[in-house]
Write a sequence for this structure.
């Protein structure tokens, strides 16, 4: 947990990340509040707040007496949200730092392309791996 | 919201010294509240007043809605673990646990045995012969196994090493999750407990200077650093807790920045960083000490 953002947001984001990368597929059961509190060593009320946020957003649903599960369509909705936030969250600081170092936009674009090729290849490889059920 | 402890306009004087100076707050039911501050700030006095071990000079205290002084009905629902607990002569560890099992109505003997094994407490040793760490461990065992409706830990871990402290936090969280109850944790190891706390009280020179939800305190202060001239310009007119300068580089800790102000600072080429609860408390409590030296 970092010091900057509210812990409940970080708890919610970690679960969102697991939904996005497929570690928690739709219909999968999410750890209980007490399990999350113990794992992250945080106050259970904070863990509850993080989970409640995801339930309120319709990403998780509660089954009384059983637990919390990933809702249908959660992954695609999260992807849409994250794509929207991507420019603000990642591209803007990248461009600002590049400007500070005197890196022009063409040079920056070339750098991104050089980094992107191996990263995307690795991503594709991982996805086919997963699909093959290994 | 049910208040387990209600303190109103509380003052405790020792001669001319106000150890607790006009303090008001509530401790909410089923929350873990941190009572933080420097040594000698008045934390222990405050907890002794709450548990009826001291007479107030003025103001009122309600424990479960009643005055605590010589009030067995509310004190039996309270477990107060203090750093330097004294025991009768000849008392061994096992005697401490036996007495605790009589005193606390929700005592869990199985949990106590489990904790004794985890903390490696030598039950057949006299309390006087125990190391500081072993005596602290007994306190931790009693505090957790008592399952009291209100449990107050006053610096519970003198002499406990990092492994044992981690075990204490984990067991506290696990048992609190299973059996929610009201916990007050007084400590100067703020970084270690910050994420466990739901509410934070900070006392300094007898006065309550912070009374806030832990979540609200996160992000309430920000470190801004960069070229000294830029940083000084940015900090002008703001509430500055701390300033550090090295060469032409400066760093300030300021409170109350809005997200747009943070973004503006970042856009102006300044480095914007988080401030931990511990740094915040240090900033707030050192300021007063400095003023006193200056006056």
């Amino acid at each position: 947990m970092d010091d900057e953002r509210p812990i409940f947001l970080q708890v919610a984001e970690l679960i969102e990340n697991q939904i996005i990368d497929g570690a928690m597929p739709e219909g999968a059961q999410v750890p209980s509040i007490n399990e999350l509190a113990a794992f992250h060593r945080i106050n259970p009320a904070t863990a509850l707040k993080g989970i409640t946020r995801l339930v309120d957003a319709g990403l998780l649903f509660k089954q009384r007496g059983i637990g919390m599960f990933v809702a249908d369509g959660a992954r695609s909705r999260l992807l849409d949200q994250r794509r929207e936030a991507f420019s603000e969250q990642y591209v803007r600081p990248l461009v600002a730092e590049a400007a500070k170092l005197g890196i022009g936009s063409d040079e920056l674009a070339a750098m991104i392309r050089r980094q992107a090729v191996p990263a995307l290849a690795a991503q594709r490889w991982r996805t086919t791996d997963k699909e093959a059920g290994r | 919201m049910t208040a387990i402890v209600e303190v109103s306009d509380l003052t405790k004087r020792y001669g001319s010294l106000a150890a607790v100076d006009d303090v008001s707050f509530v401790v909410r039911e089923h929350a873990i509240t941190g009572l933080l501050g420097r040594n000698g700030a008045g934390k222990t006095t405050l907890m002794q007043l709450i548990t009826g071990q001291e007479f107030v000079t003025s103001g009122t205290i309600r424990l479960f809605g009643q005055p605590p002084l010589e009030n067995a009905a509310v004190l039996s629902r309270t477990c107060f673990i203090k750093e330097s607990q004294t025991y009768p002569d000849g008392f061994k560890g096992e005697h401490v646990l036996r007495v605790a099992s009589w005193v606390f109505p929700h005592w869990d003997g199985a949990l106590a045995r489990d904790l004794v094994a985890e903390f490696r407490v030598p039950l057949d040793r006299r309390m006087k012969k125990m190391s500081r760490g072993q005596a602290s461990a007994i306190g931790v065992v009693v505090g957790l196994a008592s399952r009291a409706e209100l449990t107050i830990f006053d610096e519970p871990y003198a002499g406990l090493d990092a492994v044992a402290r981690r075990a204490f936090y984990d067991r506290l969280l696990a048992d609190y999750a299973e059996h929610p109850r009201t916990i007050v944790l007084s400590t100067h190891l703020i970084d270690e407990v910050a994420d466990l706390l739901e509410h934070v009280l900070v006392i300094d020179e007898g006065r309550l200077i912070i009374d806030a939800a832990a979540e609200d305190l996160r992000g309430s202060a920000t470190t801004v650093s960069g070229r000294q001239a830029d940083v000084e310009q940015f900090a002008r007119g703001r509430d500055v807790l701390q300033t550090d300068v090295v060469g032409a580089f400066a760093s300030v800790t300021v409170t109350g920045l809005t997200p747009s102000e943070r973004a503006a600072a970042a856009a102006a080429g300044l480095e914007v960083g988080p401030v931990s609860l511990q740094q915040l408390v240090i900033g707030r409590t050192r300021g007063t000490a400095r003023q006193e030296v200056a006056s």
Notes: Chain A touches chain B through 23 residues (CB under 8 Å).
